[in-house]
Each structure stands twice: as structure tokens, then as C-alpha cells.
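Figure caption, in words: inputs first, then the predicted bound structure.
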Amino acid sequence: MDDRMCVLVTGGSGLVGRAIEHVVQEEGGKLEGEEWIFLSSKDADLVDVGQTRALFEKYRPTHVIHLAAKVGGLYLHMKSNLHFLRDNLKINDNVLQTAHDMGVTKVTMVSSIHNGPPHDSNFGYSHAKRMIDVQNRAYFKQYGRRYTAVIPTNVFGPYDNFNIENGHVLSALINKTYTAKKDGTALNVSGSGTPRRQFIYSLDLGRLIVWVLREYDEIDPIILSVAEEDEVSIKDAVEIIFDTTKSDGQMKKTASNAKLRRYLPNFTFTPLKEAIQMTCSWFVANYATARK
Ligand code: NDP
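Bound structure (NDP present):
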């Protein structure tokens, strides 16, 4: 019986992967005797089944946190929905089937919120994400595998994509504000500023994903989000960013964190203002190398 624990983290070089790495390596999240391996696309292209199998054979993981996904900006998604659909379906199928074949006991994946049909601009990526729940349910029904998924709301933090056109809303706004201040130009925020969002700081998400890997035993996904009352408008977020450093999308997608609260009533989320301040400081300190 293999009693070692080896956790393979796909997508380890991205926003969420870097946060988990910090939680595990810097905050004592790693327990004695555990091995954690953080991977990027340079280690293997997970679209390719042969490379996926070779990777699993090399590390023989007992657990997998599967974060890797092909994600692009709005324009790229609109142009290539088929590519995003096929690549993400392949990545998830390769990882899950290889994990099953090699006896991996737990896989934790990342899905996304879906109520109603996906937005037309990125329906390929979105449908691939939606299949995750179906795949996990099928692996449980047919083989008894306890593979599951988390559903985060809008993630931000160090190592995010800060690109003004293509980045996530908060990080794009941080870059925009920083640039306007640096150049002494006016800050123009498109849209009305009224859409509301639940933001989750990547390090909070990292802590919660490690908890899910260790403790959460359901197959049904769990929403990882701040409470509904902690939703803020884009306008409020800009004000916080503006104070610290000094396109309307989908209008509302409120997620309930009631299930999370039932499991972890005492989990403390980093206050939004503090999390934004830390992200701004990271961005300024790492301006040369940040994705932007
Ligand atoms: P990032 O875009 O920051 O990182 C993506 C990661 O996937 C990178 O490590 C990248 O490697 C890797 N990757 C991409 N393509 C491949 C490939 N073909 N083979 C192997 N690795 C690959 O993503 P996030 O950290 O933001 O997101 C992590 C997960 O969470 C994703 O599944 C995403 O869909 C999901 N999610 C994210 C949300 C958010 O708000 N950020 C919200 C809901 C879900 P490399 O660095 O080498 O390119």
C-alpha cells in the first residue's frame, strides 16, 4: 500500500497555482513527508495524451490539483471558440483518465459558475468547464473515484494577467490606474461601474483549495466565494485601487457561499481593501515581469 502523498499541481505557474505554491511552501500548508510538484506547460503539453501519461509516470502522484486550462482574452476566444473547446476538453480528459488509470485517489479541478447558457463570446471554453462536473460524476458512478471541483468567483492577486484589454477586471484596472498615475493622464474606466462582483483573493482561494484536497469528500462541486453581502461594484473597486496606488460585462452572477460556511464557519477572508493593496504592491514591485 502506497502511503506517501505526492501532489501534482497542473497549471502551477498561473495565478491560482502560484497562490497554492505560496500557501504550501511559505505558510506551512505542506505537511511532513508530503511532496508537492508545481508544473507549467513547459513540463508537458496536457493537450497531448502521450505527454500527459509520461508526466504521470515520472511523478506517480497520489493526488492532483488540476488548474491548467487554455484561457485567452475576449478577442481570441471569439475568434477561436472551437480551439478553446477542443483543447480544454482534451486537457481535462487526459488528466482525469490518466489519473484514473494510475490510481490517483483524489483530483481537485477548477470549474466556473454557470447559471443559464454561457456568454456567446466564450462558449467553447465555458462548455468545456461545464463538462468537469459531468466527468467527475461519471468517474464516481462508474469507478467510485472521488474526483471533485471547486467553483471560484472572480479571482485576483499576484501573478494575475494585468493586461488592460484581456486581463481579469480587477487586475486590468490596477494596471490602468497605475499607468494613468505614472503618465499623469486621466483614468477612464469604461462602462457604468455598476456591475457587482464577488472577488476572491488568490491566496484565500489557495488555502481553500488545499482544504478541499484534504477534507472535502463530495463529488458535487463547492463554490469558493466571499459572502453575497461582500459583493462590490466595479466603481467601489476602482475607488479602492485609486486610493491605494493611487466594459460592463455580465451584470450579476451572485454566488452563495452557504455550503462553504457550513463546512468552514470560521474561515476568514482577507478584507478586500487589504487584498487589493497587496496586489497593487506586488504589481508595482514586479512591474517589469508581470503579465500585462
Ligand atoms: P492562468 O491563466 O493564470 O494559468 C493557466 C495555467 O495553465 C498556467 O500554469 C499555464 O502554463 C497552464 N497551461 C495552459 N495550457 C496548458 C497546456 N496545454 N498544458 C499544460 N499546462 C497548460 O489560470 P488561473 O490560475 O487564473 O486559473 C486556474 C484555473 O482556474 C483554470 O482552470 C481556470 O479556468 C479556472 N478559473 C479561474 C478563474 C479566475 O478568475 N482566474 C475563475 C474560474 C475558474 P504556462 O504558464 O506555462 O502557460
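The first helix runs from residue 15 to 26.
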